[in-house]
Amino acid sequence: MAKSVVTAGLSKVFEAPSGSTVALQNVDLAVAPNEFVTLVGASGCGKSTLLRIVGGLERQSSGEVRIDGVPAIGPGVDRAMVFQHYSLYPWLTVMENIKFSRRLKAQREGITCSDVEAASGRADALLSVMGLELVADAYPNQLSGGMQQRVAIARALMPRPQVLLMDEPFGALDAQTREVMHDLIRHLFAVEQTTIVFVTHDVEEAIYLADRVVVMAPRPGRIDGIHAVPLPAVRSPEMKLAAAFIGLKREILARIRETSGMKTDLDVLRKLTEKAVH
Ligand SMILES: Nc1ncnc2c1ncn2[C@@H]1O[C@H](COP(=O)(O)OP(=O)(O)OP(=O)(O)O)[C@@H](O)[C@H]1O
Ligand SMILES: [Mg+2]
Fold first, then answer.
1. Residues facing residue 166 across a β-bridge
2. What residue ranges do the domains of the chain occupy?
3. Which of 38, 144, 14, 4 is closest to 88 using CA atoms?
4. Which residues contact 80 (CB under 8 A, 6 or more apart)?
5. Cα 7 to the chain's mean position, in Å?
6. What is the distance in A from the centroid of ligand 2 to the CA of 84?
7. Distance CA 1, CA 78 (A)
8. Which ligand has its closest atom nearest to the C-alpha of 43?
9. Which of 50, 152, 199, 219 has its CA 20 to 30 A from that of 82?
10. Which atom, in ligand 1's list, is nearest to the CA of 46?
11. Residues 49, 24: contact at Cβ < 8 Å?
């Protein structure tokens, strides 16, 4: 069953000799079980830091993360992460990569025959959902970037995480492959019982995938606003052309521009250009 994710008064300060950075300040976010939330915002606004803290890979300076109401300290099997770089094991085949978490579990806990059978069934099902059956015995370097990312997602889903955390997972893929991945991830979201928090730079991607889009702002990293997505559960690419979609995209882009400092940078540039001309 999917779990809720709550951050309460979450802050993170990175200390460095050159000064301290407030990567997150007082972030309150509540994601419902089986909700798909995307995080967007200017570079450096703390999206990855927030995701890493929720995943238990980074410690917050203050505040709390609660998974289904229980404070989370460190990583746990209830949460899985997928990053932009596929980080597959190059010496293992696609199938072996997907089963890797089971192998670790078996070594830790001692394995039974029924465990092996259950794991094989799950791995076969994931191969099929992700369209990877024909490459089950291939090695990662024989696959395209899109295929490698499918394997990484299947591997993350293998232990049935109740929360899936994805940091720009399609950032390195070309536009066409991304479109295919969007529909695949929506399909996965429908068939797997999981809550998804997904970071992206691409506002269109953020809207198309999510139930709600969280816009973050930098210096200090914080939530600027949360936008509900008025789309049905089953998505299709032509929805991107609807007036409501385009309107929301424009609104979110304006918020990012407004809070990123880009507008100020542009004003300074304009003034400098004017001076140079006169
Ligand atoms: N380990 C670290 N040490 C020091 N500062 C850090 C560290 N990690 C992140 N930061 C700083 O914290 C802020 C938030 O970084 P973060 O990577 O979370 O942003 P982001 O929104 O994911 O950016 P991007 O869109 O470029 O990936 C940035 O100013 C960054 O420089
Ligand atoms: Mg990041």
1. 82, 198
2. 1-78+164-245, 84-160
3. 144
4. 156, 157, 159, 161, 163, 164, 165
5. 16
6. 9
7. 10
8. 1
9. 219
10. 18
11. yes
Residues 123 and 99: beta-carbon distance below 8 Å: yes
Q: Is the CB of 45 under 6 A from ligand 1?
A: yes
Contact between 209 and 215 under an 8 Å Cβ cutoff? The reply is no
* Residue pair 55/197 in contact by the 8 Å Cβ criterion: no
Question: How many angstroms separate the CA atoms of 8 and 16, rounded?
Answer: 25
pLDDT computed for residue 84 by the predictor: 87
Ligand nearest to the CA of 21: 1
DSSP assignments along 121-177, one per residue: HHHHHHHHHTT-GGGTTS-GGGS-HHHHHHHHHHHHHTT--SEEEEESTTTTS-HHH
At the fourth CATH level, the homologous superfamily of domain 1-78+164-245 is P-loop containing nucleotide triphosphate hydrolases (3.40.50.300)
SS3 249: helix
Alpha-carbon torsion, ordered 35, 36, 41, 43, to 10 deg: 120
pLDDT, tens digit, for every residue of 177-235? 999 999 999 999 999 989 999 999 999 999 999 999 999 999 999 999 999 999 999 99
Q: Which of 133, 136, 131 is nearest to 184 (CA)?
A: 131
What is the H or E stretch that residue 52 is in? helix 47-55
Task: Show the tokens assigned to 114.
Answer: 């029924």
Question: Which residues are CB-neighbours of 205 under 8 A, at least 6 positions away?
Answer: 38, 170, 178, 182
pLDDT tens for residues 135-171?
999 999 999 999 999 999 999 999 899 999 999 999 9
pLDDT value for 113: 58
The answer, yes or no, to whether any atom of ligand 1 lies below 6 A from the CB of 40, is no
- Residue pair 164/195 in contact (Cβ under 8 Å)? The answer is yes
